[in-house]
Amino acid sequence: MACVALVKRAGCARLQLEYLAWTLFPIPGFRVALVEGDLSKWRVVVPGLQGSFLHNTEYDTEWTFPFNFPFRPPRVKFVPPVFHPNVYPSGTVCSAILNEVEAYQSTYR
Question: What is the C-alpha separation between 62 and 15, in angstroms, rounded?
Answer without folding.
Answer: 15
